[in-house]
Structures are given as structure tokens and as C-alpha cells.
Amino acid sequence: MSPASDKLVVLLTKGIDSELSSVALTIANGGITSGLKVFLFLTSTAIDLVRIKGQQMTHVSPLDPLAKLIEDFQARGGVIWACPPCVKARGYEADDLLDGVVIAGASVMHEEIKAGAATLSF
Fold it and tell me: Which SUPFAM superfamilies does the entry mention (predicted)?
């Protein structure tokens, strides 16, 4: 991470069937706690994490339930982007996703990376 950067982009490809989704959200929330502006870019099966009620299907103990992790992330200013082709491939539309989720292409993520954001991938 560049010394001047206070941003983190987390690329998430794992969905409700993987404990890595809970790990990624825990780390993303930790980034906010440490003062970073955190963005999630969801692709592939990670889209199901923001499908209404989809995130309620996973709880990896001892971590917080996935629904709570996502709710906390958004409430604390975290930004969630959903890959348009991945949303479309699942037959979802904006109304199928949690409030506040932005359907946006990879260019939004690339802009933050070009501006110095650190990156993590799950």
C-alpha cells in the first residue's frame, strides 16, 4: 500500500458456500476499524452474498453471521460493487440485491487501485 493511501479494495469471488466470504468480510470490517475506506468488488458466486436473504444462509463460527458482517460493513461506510455480467448471469436485477449495493463494472475498482488503494482477493 502506498504510504498516502487510506483505501482498500477487496475482490471477492466466493459466495455463501465458502467460509472465505466470512473471512473476507471480517477483514474488510477490520479495515474500516483501522481507518481505511473499504470497497468490495463482488464477482462470480460472491454475487449471492448480496442477494436479498442470500447472506442469511451462512454463519461460520466463531465469526459473526455473514448477514451481520455485511450489515455492519455497509453501516460503517463500506461500499459494495457487484459485477454487472455476474449479476445478469444469475438472473438478478438491482431489486434482487441488498439496498446500497451498486451494480458497477470493474472500472470503478480499477480507478481506486490506480489512485493507490491496496488490494486483497478472496
Answer: DsrEFH-like
The x, y and z cell numbers of residue 101, run together, are 449495493
Q: Return all residues near 121 (Cβ < 8 A) that are at least 6 apart.
A: 10, 11, 12, 13
Q: Which CATH number fits domain 7-121: 3.40.630.30, 3.30.830.10, 3.30.70.1400, 3.40.1260.10?
A: 3.40.1260.10
- Please give the Cα distance from 39 to 102 (Å, whole number): 11
Per-residue pLDDT tens over the stretch 27-76:
999 999 999 999 999 999 999 999 998 777 777 778 788 899 999 999 99
